[in-house]
Amino acid sequence: LLNYQGKSRDVMTLAHELGHGVHQVLASQQGHLMADTPLTLAETASVFGEMLTFQTLLKSKSSPQERNIMLASKVEDMLNTVVRQIAFHEFETIVHDQRRHGELTPEAIGDVWMSVQERSLGPAIKLERNYASFWSYIPHFIHSPFYVYAYAFGDCLVNSLYAVYEESNEGFAENYIEMLRAGGTLRHKELLQPFNLDASDSTFWAKGLSLIENFIDQLDDGK
Ligand SMILES: [Zn+2]
User: Fold this and answer.
1) Half-sphere exposure at residue 9, Cβ-oriented, CA atoms within 13 angstroms
2) Neighbours of ion ligand 1 (CB under 5 A)
């Protein structure tokens, strides 16, 4: 749902939802049962559409202040999606491992939460002890354990895909449309193969993370 008020965030949301629309229209040829995308690809077209729009808007801004505001909020979103969700995943892994050896008190869970959060945020952020119970506000931990990785996976996938598009966009659009057309009939391994991307290879993730790094560098340069 979008309340369009002409803000740049609204433009991004519109691009995001249109991405879902394009994906669903293309995948509809697979029929009702196979059109639905796998979880790993569910946010691909939407986030990719958002990224294209973001880059176009960014290029159209000449004032350094406007560019910095756009870059800063993008970097914040990306760090939230990648670093924070992976920290969530690590928290779940440790808690589930410990639970195998016996019941855990809320304090013990809080200790794991604090140590993982402290590590993921680094020394610049000081967490107070009252943050120890904040794991309990994440519904995924209870209702869909280990789902959180999908956000980071989806974001990194799009970043890597975008990096390929920037390197050489020859034939990219054709491959991209084919990928969306596949709907739920193929897994990410087959879908990404035409782009020479492979999520089981660490360079795939490095490519995605380098895009975030590049935004942070642009932000540094724009001071
Ligand atoms: Zn979405």
Assistant:
1) 7
2) 46
Whole-angstrom distance, CA of residue 34 vs CA of residue 31 = 6
Residue 150 CA, ligand 1 centroid: distance in Å = 12
For 45-91, how does the pLDDT look when each residue is reduced to its tens digit (9 = 90+)?
Answer: 999 999 999 999 999 988 989 999 999 999 998 888 888 999 999 99
Predicted-assembly ipTM surpassing the 0.95 threshold: yes
- Please name the residue ranges forming H helices in 64-192: 64-79, 85-99, 106-121, 140-143, 149-167, 172-181, 188-192
Residues 112 and 134 sit within 8 Å (Cβ to Cβ): no
What secondary structure letter does DSSP report for 82? I
Spatial separation of the C-alpha atoms in residues 30 and 100, rounded to whole Å: 42
CATH number at residue 40: 1.10.1370.20
**Ligand 1 mean position to 50 CA, how many Å?**
10
Q: Find the domain containing 216 and state its range.
A: 8-221
Asked, for residue 49, whether it belongs to a domain, the answer is yes
CA distance 186 to 177: 14
Gap between the Cα atoms of 198 and 191, Å rounded:
9
Q: Is residue 179 part of a domain?
A: yes
Amino acid present at 158: V
CA of 36 to the centre of ligand 1 (A): 13
Write the DSSP symbol of residue 148: T
